[in-house]
Structure of GrdX protein:
Amino acid sequence: MSKGNYIVITNNPLVFEKLKDGHEVIYREISYEEILKDVRDRIHDGHRLLTHPLSGSVKPNETPYKSILITKGKEKMDDWSVQIIESAIQACRKFEFKSDKYGAGVYKDFQMIDWTLLESGLASADLW
């Protein structure tokens, strides 16, 4: 049984492992920008953003991981969500991809940063 009225879209294996039992999680092994595009497509289909796609102080393309909450239910397309996700995609394109230059241990750190941001989003939205 899934908790909350939300879906987690992520490419972070740590988020998937922590939430897969009891939460609706869509885990895909794709890039940060592709996660944003996946969320954009779901927004066009009637879902709304519940967490900001550029949360945290890590710039897009400095980390390979991103987790975003969207509504489980669909309604008419939400203009605010469309504007936010499109801006995030544009911001992502402005930054050089750097995460392929890091050592293996850094990836675990980036997974933890993404998890912590998502966890605070879950808690602050009273969804946890």
Notes: The CA atoms of residues 12 and 128 lie 18 Å apart. The chain has one domain: 6-124. The chain has four helices and three strands.
